């Protein structure tokens, strides 16, 4: 039943002599990323070529898997960049660690004014483009021209379906993810005109229609059901204050079923834990006030270990680092910082015992029918960070500033990749999260040692449950709770 | 949201790009128009085909095709025509996936189509498509999701799928998606007790061999380590909830003493204390049951309590530190003993038993299945006799019957291993678990010290798993050895991997607490009996200056009346709502106020 791994250099298990492959290619990130010099890079071993099965007998050293070769290439690139940093004079260092605000602003505003032709694949995702750019600019504290704002509000109004929800463009079917993007954009613009353009009654009806009998949401009529759909629905509903028991019912149990033994959350039951879904699942559970259904200690462990030697985060076990997970994973950790009470409660079970996630029979939703759901998001941000950062927040800033910034403006996945608005948005969101995560209060000004590079790198704080700038959130909260 | 804009690698000729975009917009406009006018002609369908081939993200077009398919189906009667219509849909999906193998809409369309169950599914075509796609990107989670869907849909035996994961792992053992699917399949096969999968022990032994082989081939690869972690969790945890501690312990003989407070002679509430009893104003004796995982369902019928003492009508078990769902590790009930005659030297006994019951269940729904029965006795005593003829202040408490007891101390005991779980099955399981884990330990100790954090962490976790199993047996002292080694590893890890320092510090704190409290010899150093004015002597535990960042093993502190945790690095006290506040509150609150 169990077969030997026949494709690698055969080593009998009983001999138990692991291969001598030399030290790992990169030393782990030093405590303070600037303090210690990086070691010289090991030369890259030749990539695995040809049918591995044939030449495995001959190989003295084990061949590397494709995955390993790719990983080493990335580590080498990142190490090169860091080596330059460590070798640089103090003044140069400071320059290297600067956030290129002006360039990013230029890239983002340019994008807003006219979306280049190569963006055609996103024609079903135009509200997303609006959100990525508008939110990024808000993080940089850059105000938009009024006519640009008006143009966006008008455009999004045309995307709004007459029966509620927003589509990827005018006349397209309403879709939960683009609804999230549209609503977050409007909240970020924050004007009376923007906020009142959302038809909340119809939005509520649309969301009810998207609800599956299981309690989970589907993306659009006839569309797929997953954790992303659940998060975007719950986030929007909470933000515009239409979340109630009918929408909330059953969502928590679905998300709980998506937590894997690793601790992270997958897109659908039985799938693999994934950074994006982990954020979505965790944030939705907090907004539903059902977070104790998740196994938080194992979730914390999973997320924390996604930060690698490159200082950035990977999205899944044994995948390459990617700047966008600076937000998905980084914000998940930031959320946990405010949940330590719940984590500790769960940790009281003896640490070696398996802790299956929460109880399915629990009727939280029905007992909370009368709850004021929007309060959960509001109160959450007021909670203090009960402990310091659970990840290396300064190292993450180092990755974003040195590896994800593009000189011409915009941010990217990793060195060697192109910039785009998606990565710009989530790298900057992650940067903001990591700058503020060492503070006890979520909007207190961070101390200089928590902001890597010049203090002018400091971005606006966000509300991590919705990923909108905190001030904008408060305006929207007031607006929608008075309606 | 996770769909990345796929920009062309090189800036194309601007004019060509513009033309392409114009064409696309034109197509999209036409498709949307057809959608709104319910036009489902062949020509209109062709346009949506073209649009999706160019832009699989156009989810409205997918929906349009579903509506059109259903509409046109009504007009078809011949199976061949239906088949050809299905074939068209399958082809759109394939072309769309060629453009973007991660298109949510495309994958979903295919699932939807199959679920219509209109014609037999071409097994070869489906798995062929998957093979092709997973060859290009072995980690495409859409592909793996579809594979799980397909296997279930077609009734492919899970044994077959297990073989497939093996193939994929052989291709590239870094492929964590394959390892992950393996864990899902194995769990199902074992739960269903499929042929060849009756013995968990056999299967897990084989899996350990397999993954260890991968790890030894290349210890720097992450995937195997995480699969190993899953195996470890399966191997080291008991299946059913277990009672791991209780207070008062089995066989304990308590002496309850009343203390009269000097300033309130008239209406003095009794205070009980002795070596092991509680100093309670209300004159109640708490009985605490502590389980290894949160359970619920403790009722007078699931836990019986008999005593020659007149017990109040209803004994209610209350959860401490309760979760939303009503589960708790720790349950307590309070016996009223305030109206006893304290001059008598009569002994009262209390017997508690938990029979085999379906009522007590864990969060995962497994039932408590180790019937236990324990008794303790207590005898009222006069405080004067204690304070006169004993010098308790510097005498440490004693907690093990097997240890010689200081003569002046009442023969009361605190067992940490208060319950001998005699269930043969569990012992046998533990034995296998321990053997399995010991083998793994021996193996990993041989990995040369290449400072791999995964290797060290896995070794530490193996050690702790062994330690935990030892606690279920009777050899708490062996536990120390494991703890010692694990402590060293966490210290190494803190230096080696500073990014995760806090995580390691927390783990280290737990191990340290385990080590300090797991046997009498070590714990003794931290225990004393304190006598405060007008109060009965109190059991005092000082765990100070230990660099603890987290508290654990509270089940071993059930008897503690004063707990001093000062001068540690506890990050927050907020989380530690000590379930035993009944006994600890005075000093504990004091600590909270000091803000540690």
Automatic annotation (TrEMBL), chain A:
Q: A GO BP term, please?
A: prenylation
Annotated region (Disordered), positions in chain: 1-57
Domain Prenyltransferase alpha-alpha toroid, by residue range, is 100-468
Against InterPro entries, the record matches this protein to: FTB, PGGT1B-like, Prenyltrans
Question: Which key words tag this protein in UniProt?
Answer: Metal-binding, Prenyltransferase, Repeat, Transferase, Zinc
EC number of this enzyme: 2.5.1.58
Offer a single GO CC term for the protein.
protein farnesyltransferase complex
Question: Care to name a GO molecular-function term for this sequence?
Answer: zinc ion binding
What is this protein for, i.e. what is its function? Answer: Catalyzes the transfer of a farnesyl moiety from farnesyl diphosphate to a cysteine at the fourth position from the C-terminus of several proteins. The beta subunit is responsible for peptide-binding.
Protein name from the UniProt record: Protein farnesyltransferase subunit beta
Source organism per entry reads Zizania palustris
From TrEMBL, chain B:
Enumerate the Gene Ontology biological process terms: prenylation
Which molecular function term from Gene Ontology is one that the record holds?
Rab geranylgeranyltransferase activity
Catalytic activity, reaction form: geranylgeranyl diphosphate + L-cysteinyl-[protein] = S-geranylgeranyl-L-cysteinyl-[protein] + diphosphate
EC number from the UniProt entry:
2.5.1.60
Q: Cellular component GO terms, alphabetically?
A: Rab-protein geranylgeranyltransferase complex
Query: The organism sits in which domain of life?
Result: Eukaryota
Q: Which UniProt keywords apply?
A: Prenyltransferase, Repeat, Transferase
Regarding protein family, the annotation reads: Belongs to the protein prenyltransferase subunit alpha family.
Query: What role does it play?
Result: Catalyzes the transfer of a geranyl-geranyl moiety from geranyl-geranyl pyrophosphate to cysteines occuring in specific C-terminal amino acid sequences.
Name the chain's protein.
Geranylgeranyl transferase type-2 subunit alpha
Give the organism the record lists.
Answer: Zizania palustris (Northern wild rice)
Task: State the organism's lineage.
Answer: Eukaryota, Viridiplantae, Streptophyta, Embryophyta, Tracheophyta
């Amino acid at each position: 039943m169990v077969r030997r791994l026949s494709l690698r250099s055969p080593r009998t298990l009983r001999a138990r002599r692991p291969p001598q492959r030399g030290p790992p290619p990169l030393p782990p990130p030093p405590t303070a990323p600037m303090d210690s010099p990086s070691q010289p890079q090991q030369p890259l071993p030749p990539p695995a070529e040809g049918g591995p099965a044939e030449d495995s007998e001959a190989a003295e050293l084990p061949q590397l898997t494709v995955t390993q070769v790719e990983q080493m290439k990335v580590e080498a690139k990142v190490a090169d960049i860091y080596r330059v940093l460590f070798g640089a004079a103090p003044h140069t260092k400071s320059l290297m660690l600067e956030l290129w605000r002006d360039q990013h602003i230029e890239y983002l505003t340019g994008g807003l004014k006219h979306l280049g032709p190569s963006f055609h694949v996103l024609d079903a995702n135009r509200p997303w483009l609006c959100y990525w750019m508008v939110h990024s600019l808000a993080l940089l504290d850059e105000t938009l021209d009024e006519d640009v704002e008006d143009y966006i509000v008008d455009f999004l109004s045309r995307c709004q379906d007459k029966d509620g929800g927003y589509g990827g463009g005018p006349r397209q079917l309403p879709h939960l993810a683009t609804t999230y993007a549209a609503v977050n954009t409007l909240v970020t613009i924050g004007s009376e005109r923007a906020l009142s353009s959302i038809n909340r009654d119809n939005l509520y009806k649309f969301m009810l229609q998207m609800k599956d009998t299981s309690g989970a949401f589907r993306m659009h009529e006839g569309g797929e059901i997953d954790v992303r759909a659940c998060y975007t629905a719950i986030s929007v509903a909470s933000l515009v204050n239409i979340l109630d028991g009918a929408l909330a019912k059953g969502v928590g149990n679905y998300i709980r079923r998506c937590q894997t033994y690793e601790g992270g959350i997958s897109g659908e039951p039985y799938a693999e834990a994934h950074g994006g879904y982990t954020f979505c699942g965790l944030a939705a559970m907090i907004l539903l006030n059902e977070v104790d259904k998740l196994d938080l200690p194992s979730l914390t462990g999973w997320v924390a270990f996604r930060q690698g030697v490159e200082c950035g985060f990977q999205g899944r076990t044994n995948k390459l680092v990617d700047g966008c997970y600076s937000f998905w994973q980084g914000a998940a950790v930031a959320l946990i910082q405010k949940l330590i009470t719940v984590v500790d409660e769960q940790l009281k079970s003896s640490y070696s015992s398996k802790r299956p996630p929460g109880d399915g029979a629990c009727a939280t939703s029905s007992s909370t029918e009368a709850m004021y759901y929007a309060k959960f998001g509001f109160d959450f941000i007021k909670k203090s960070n009960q402990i310091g950062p659970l990840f290396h927040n300064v190292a993450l800033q180092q990755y974003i500033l040195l590896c994800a910034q593009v000189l011409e403006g915009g941010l990217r996945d990793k060195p060697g990749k192109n910039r785009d608005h998606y990565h710009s948005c989530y790298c900057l969101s992650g940067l903001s999260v990591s700058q503020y995560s060492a503070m006890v209060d979520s909007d207190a000004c961070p101390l200089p040692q928590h902001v890597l590079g010049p203090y002018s790198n400091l971005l606006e704080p966000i509300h991590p449950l919705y990923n909108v700038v905190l001030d904008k959130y408060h305006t929207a909260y007031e607006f929608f709770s008075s309606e | 949201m996770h769909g990345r804009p796929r920009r062309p690698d090189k800036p194309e000729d601007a004019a060509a790009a513009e033309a392409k975009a114009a064409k696309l917009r034109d197509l999209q406009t036409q498709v949307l128009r057809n959608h709104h006018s319910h036009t489902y002609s062949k020509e209109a369908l062709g346009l949506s085909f073209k649009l999706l081939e160019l832009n699989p993200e156009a989810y409205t077009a997918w929906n349009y095709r579903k509506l059109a398919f259903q509409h046109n189906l009504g007009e078809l009667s011949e199976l061949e025509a239906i088949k050809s219509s299905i074939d068209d849909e399958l082809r759109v999906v394939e072309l769309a996936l060629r453009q973007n193998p991660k298109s949510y809409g495309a994958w979903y369309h295919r699932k939807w189509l199959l679920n219509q169950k209109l014609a037999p599914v071409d097994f070869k075509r489906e798995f062929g498509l998957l093979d092709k796609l997973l060859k290009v990107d072995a980690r495409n989670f859409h592909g793996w999701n579809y594979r799980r869907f397909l296997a279930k849909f077609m009734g492919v035996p899970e044994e077959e799928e297990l073989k497939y994961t093996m193939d994929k792992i052989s291709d590239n053992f870094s492929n964590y998606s394959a390892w992950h699917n393996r864990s899902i399949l194995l769990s199902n096969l074992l739960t269903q007790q499929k042929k060849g999968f009756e013995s968990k022990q056999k299967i897990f032994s084989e899996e350990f061999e397999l993954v260890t082989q991968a790890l030894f081939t290349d210890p720097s690869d992450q995937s195997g380590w995480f699969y190993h972690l899953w195996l470890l969790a399966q191997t080291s945890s008991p299946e059913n909830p277990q009672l791991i501690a209780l207070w008062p312990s089995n066989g304990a003989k308590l002496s309850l003493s009343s203390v009269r407070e000097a300033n309130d002679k008239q209406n003095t509430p009794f205070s009980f204390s002795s070596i092991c009893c509680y100093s309670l104003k209300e004159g109640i004796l708490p009985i605490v049951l502590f389980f290894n995982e949160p359970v619920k369902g403790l009722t007078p019928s699931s836990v019986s309590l008999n005593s020659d003492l007149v017990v109040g009508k209803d004994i209610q078990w209350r959860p401490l530190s309760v979760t939303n769902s009503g589960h708790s590790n720790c349950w307590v009930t309070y016996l009223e003993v305030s109206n006893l005659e304290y001059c008598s030297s009569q002994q009262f006994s209390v017997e508690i038993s938990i029979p085999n019951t379906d009522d007590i269940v864990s969060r995962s729904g497994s039932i408590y299945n180790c019937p236990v029965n324990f008794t303790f006795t207590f005898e009222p005593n006069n405080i004067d006799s204690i304070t006169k003829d004993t010098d308790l202040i510097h005498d440490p408490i004693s907690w093990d019957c097997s240890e010689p007891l200081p003569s002046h101390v009442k023969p009361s005991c605190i067992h940490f291993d208060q319950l001998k779980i005699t269930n043969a099955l569990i012992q046998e399981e533990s034995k296998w678990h321990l053997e399995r884990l010991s083998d793994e330990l021996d193996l990993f100790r041989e990995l040369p010290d290449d400072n791999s954090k995964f290797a060290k962490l896995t070794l530490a976790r193996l050690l702790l798993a062994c330690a935990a199993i030892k606690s279920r047996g009777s050899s708490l002292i062996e536990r120390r050895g494991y703890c010692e080694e694990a402590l060293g590893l966490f210290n190494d890890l803190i230096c080696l991997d500073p990014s995760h320092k806090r995580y390691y510090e927390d783990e280290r704190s737990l191990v340290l607490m385990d080590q300090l409290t797991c046997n009498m010899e070590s714990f003794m150093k931290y225990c004393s009996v304190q006598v405060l004015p007008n109060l009965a002597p109190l059991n005092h535990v000082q765990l100070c200056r230990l660099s603890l960042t987290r508290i654990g093993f509270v089940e071993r502190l059930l008897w503690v009346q004063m707990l001093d945790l000062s001068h540690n690095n506890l990050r927050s006290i907020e989380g530690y709502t000590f379930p035993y506040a009944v006994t600890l509150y005075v000093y504990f609150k004091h600590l909270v106020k000091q803000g540690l």
